[in-house]
Amino acid sequence: MQFGKFRKMHKAKILVVVATSLSTSAFAAPEFTRLPAPPHQYVGGWEHYVGGGLAAFDCNDDALPELYAAGGEAPAALLLNTTAQMGDTPSFSDNTPESLALTGVTGAYPIDIDSDGHIDLAILRVGENRFLRGLGDCAFTPFTSLDYIPDTAWTTAFSATWEGTNALPTMAFGNYVDRDDPEGPFGTCDENTLLRPKDGTYSTPTQLAPGFCALSILFSDWSRSGQADLRVSNDRHYYVKGGSEQMWKMASEPRLYTQADGWKDYMIWGMGIASRDLTGDGYSEVYLTSMGDQKLQSPTGDGTPNFIDYTYERGTTAHRPFTGEDGRPSTGWHVAFGDIENNGRDDIFIAKGNVERMAGAAMEDPNNLLIQDENGNFSEQGDVAGIASLVRSRGAALVDFNGDGLLDLAVNNRKADIELYQNTSTNTGNWVSLKIQQAGVNRDAIGAFVEVKTDASVQTREITIGGGHAGGELGPLHFGLGMAEAATVRVIWPDHTTSEWYDFTPNQPFVFQRDEGLKPL
């Protein structure tokens, strides 16, 4: 499916139309309330300066998300969602089974590897990575049927997609500094690893070289061509010179995009990736966290991997602390898009915090909440919302804890307690929660595009696994709908088959089953 010509001609016009159609209603400022949380911290030496990811997923089928938090040298923790019933004040308890109480964990991503309907976990570690098979009721056991060679590197990033008719996903691991290189740490970035299934197994991993110390990777069909490619965000602190950001074209033999393809080489202290269509044209913008300037980029839509930076124009640079007295550059980690006020416009959360004691970067570095206005620009409201923590944050999750239709927030912190926040904003808009499912392989429809249409706009969402910083979510998609009292939805499935449009009434959850259509959950 090619949208390039449409995008190139109409992008500016779309921004105006979307802004105009959504500007008729005023919404109150965002507000979050701190919740009690089980004690948990991400700790350890220099191998755990990075990482600290957080995974969000429902492992006991009660429609409420659990949280799995990396612990570094301390055991990772599963926080069971114990909210009494939908709409109640959220609550969590530590309920970590022995199989999940692993040390050396830098992060984790939920994924249904074997398509059995139970969410599995890809666990990233300093040492041997783990795939744990979900058994239901939040029980997990090691996979015994994948026949793969686990990375034993310093793994800090993960992404997955399904290619063609493969029964198993293609999975990529981003590795950081090669700890075994005596010349390190500077200039000794490890290679990344690609697992592509063949004949139902992962017997022969592919090394993606060169590696430039990846801290976030993401499979995404950025061009809407039907092929997901692998974007890699790298930390120039360790590759020092000769490196850059990367994107791998997932051909039969993966290759790096180059300037001849339209790719522009650039170097940042890359930490996290998130993608979301902000303009309503069907193409996803990309947000990259970094030390100093954060980057918001948009693909040109001409079929080339050419991304235009418009960070300053949209107010998303978030390069220095916005509160406190420390004016040194910020350090961004996890990034997530989400509509905090349900006004039909996606906002941006960024977890911030000094690597450890880096003198050139801010020590008191509050997390950001960038709220998008009716003109498509962003302004900082983290302090107003009450989430401007000054501890060293790392991973995060922006999900609905209690099913009330508002996105809540969890933040995993280095050497500080995990933080949980309930979204208690008032005068918010309408919403919908959509669980996208298909029978057989790739049950969660990774690689699908979901379109939600109201009189005001069309919102497009790609279903992906990866990005963020060392952790992500797998569950229902949340859409804010503004004041719309009716809407429609369709799904462009991973095999590029397009469903019909289904009408729905907002403010409730639905399941969109490929063979059965849209039904209330």
End-to-end C-alpha gap: 30 Å
Instruction: State the low-pLDDT regions, or none.
Output: 1-24
Class inferred from helices and paired strands: mainly beta
Total number of strands: 38
Overall shape: it is globular
Question: Rg to the nearest angstrom?
Answer: 21 Å
User: What multimeric state do the chains show?
Assistant: single chain
Estimate percent helicity: under 10%
Strand content: 35-45%
Instruction: Count helical runs.
Output: 4
Mean pLDDT: 93
Report the sheet with the most strands, covering strand number, pairing sense and barrel closure. 5 strands, mixed
Q: Spatial order of the strands in the main sheet?
A: 5-4-3-2-33
Report on the architecture of this protein.
This protein is mainly β and 521 residues long. The protein has four helices and 38 strands. The strands form nine sheets. Strands 5-4-3-2-33 form a five-stranded mixed sheet, with no helix packed on it. It has a five-stranded antiparallel sheet with strand order 13-12-11-10-32, with no helix packed on it. A hairpin with an 8-residue loop joins strand 22 and strand 23 (347-352). The longest helix has 19 residues, at 4-22. Mean pLDDT is 93; it is low at 1-24.
In short:
The protein has 521 residues and is mainly beta. It is built from four helices and 38 strands.
